[in-house]
Structure formats: structure tokens, C-alpha cells
Design brief:
This protein has 261 residues and is mainly alpha-helical. It contains nine helices and two strands; from the N terminus they run H-H-H-H-H-H-H-E-E-H-H. It has one domain: Up-down Bundle (Ferritin), CATH 1.20.1260.60. A hairpin with a 2-residue loop joins strand 1 and strand 2.
Length: 261
């Protein structure tokens, strides 16, 4: 089997793998949404607040995976062109850069293996590295990484959009956790949610949308080294989510048992 045929077969496997990851994230999102509805109806607002942060994280990841899957399908449709040249085709440059970026993050082993096995031999490791850091990387993929912190401003923006989509009443959220709060809700202080602590610390926005083509990058070397932090956080599994819920239940129970003045 030739390299091109192998690439065509393996990209089908890659599509199936990411489809499975997408479904896992969608399951967590649906579970969190159902739990949120229950906590709202019971007026358990601190717990509902934690649900909101989990939904925000899962929603972002779901959208990012969907975008990555679209990029991979575009690459799949142009594999003949990709293997026919040592240059990155301009019509799929952003899609290839998206795959290189995802591979560099190390979140999905199958993506990393595909890039290393097929793209590195064609474009060389240096060019793959440059693509992963270039402004060609779509800003949507920055959501593959969970932020260490969500600001209250970010949560408010998310809720404003989410309540329209879900047709849910989030009046309780805006009243109890106002955007001008000088610190996060008392019940979330020092509480890790999926490895993330809720706080009002500012975080950097995602990189701007890519508008540069390869010709522009060639004439502007600085674009190739534009800084995109590339940590490799542990993937958040359903088992992690269940463990998180159990830990959170213990924490909330301890709060209830605290003596009151």
C-alpha cells in the first residue's frame, strides 16, 4: 500500500476517533445541563453555578472539536493535491495548520500520530512546527485547551448566549453572581472544577482570526513565530467528571457541617 492510500485509510480512522471524542464531550455537556436544570428548580444556586462552569468548558471543547473535524474533512478531500507537492496548498493551509496545532497540543493521540506520520515527511518537522505556531491557526481551536480560570465577565457572556439557545431562565445567575462582584461566589473559593479554579483574574483572549496566507507568512517571518502557548493538559474524561462530582459533593457537605454564628 502506498503512502497516499495509507493516508486516506488512516484519516478515516482519525475521523471516527474524533467523532467518538465529540460524543463524549456532548454527553458531559448534556449531563451537566440536566443537572443544572435540577439544581435551578431546587434553588441550589452554588451547585448550579458549578454546573455553569462545567457547561461553559464542555461547550467550548465541543465547538473546537467540531471545527477540527471540519478541517480534517477538508484535508481528506484534498489528499491527492497534498501528496503531489512539497508545498502546503493554499486552499487547505488553514486546515493543515489546525491539525498541526492540535497535534502540538497533544490532546488527541490519533491526531498527533497522523501529523507525525504523514505531514512531517512531506513538509519536514520545522515547517510543521511553524504551522502549529502560525497565524493560520484558526482562533476557534484555542478552545481545545481549558483555561485555568474563567472570569465572571466570561461566564456572563457565555450565559447570555446559552440561555437563548437553551431557552432557560438565568435570572438567578445574574442576580446572585453579578459581573461587578469583587471576587467569585463564596462557595467556589479554592474549589477546583475539572482542574480549574473559578476566579476573577483576567486571562488573555484567544488569538485573532487568521487572515494571512502562506505568501504573506513567507514575506513576514515573524508570523511563523507568533506566540501560541502549547501546554499538554490531561484530557478530561467522563471518569474525571464523575470523580469531580463526588469530590464536590464532599466539599458541599463539609460546608453544610460548618458551625454558624
Amino acid at each position: 500500500m502506498g503512502k497516499l492510500d495509507d493516508a486516506k485509510n488512516q484519516i478515516q480512522v482519525l475521523n471516527a476517533y474524533l467523532s467518538s471524542e465529540y460524543k463524549k464531550t456532548a454527553t458531559i455537556l448534556q449531563h451537566s445541563s440536566n443537572t443544572l436544570r435540577s439544581n435551578i428548580s431546587l434553588k441550589k444556586y452554588p451547585s448550579a453555578f458549578e454546573n455553569v462552569t462545567m457547561i461553559c468548558s464542555s461547550y467550548d471543547k465541543e465547538q473546537a472539536i467540531d471545527y477540527l473535524m471540519t478541517s480534517i474533512k477538508n484535508v481528506q478531500a484534498n489528499l491527492n493535491q497534498i501528496f503531489a507537492s512539497k508545498e502546503v496548498p493554499s486552499n487547505v493551509a488553514m486546515d493543515i495548520a489546525a491539525m498541526c496545532y492540535a497535534a502540538k497540543l497533544g490532546l488527541f493521540e490519533a491526531v498527533t500520530k497522523y501529523v507525525n506520520h504523514f505531514f512531517v515527511p512531506i513538509y519536514k518537522a520545522t515547517e510543521v512546527e511553524n504551522l502549529a505556531h502560525s497565524s493560520l491557526v484558526p482562533k476557534e481551536l484555542s478552545k481545545l485547551k481549558r483555561p485555568e480560570n474563567y472570569t465572571m465577565e466570561e461566564l456572563h457572556i457565555f450565559v447570555q448566549n446559552y440561555e437563548k439557545q437553551m431557552r432557560m431562565d438565568f435570572t438567578w445567575f445574574f442576580e446572585q453572581y453579578p459581573i461587578n462582584a469583587n471576587r467569585p461566589p463564596e462557595h467556589t473559593v479554592n474549589v477546583k472544577i475539572g482542574g480549574r479554579t473559578i476566579s476573577n483574574n483576567n486571562i488573555q483572549p484567544p488569538p485573532a482570526a487568521a487572515k494571512n496566507n502562506l505568501a504573506q507568512i513567507a514575506s513576514s517571518p515573524s508570523l511563523l513565530t507568533s506566540s501560541l502557548p502549547l501546554p499538554a493538559p490531561k484530557e478530561f474524561s467522563i471518569e474525571d467528571f464523575i470523580n469531580m462530582q463526588q469530590d464536590l459533593t464532599k466539599i458541599l457537605k463539609n460546608w453544610k457541617d460548618l458551625p454558624t454564628n
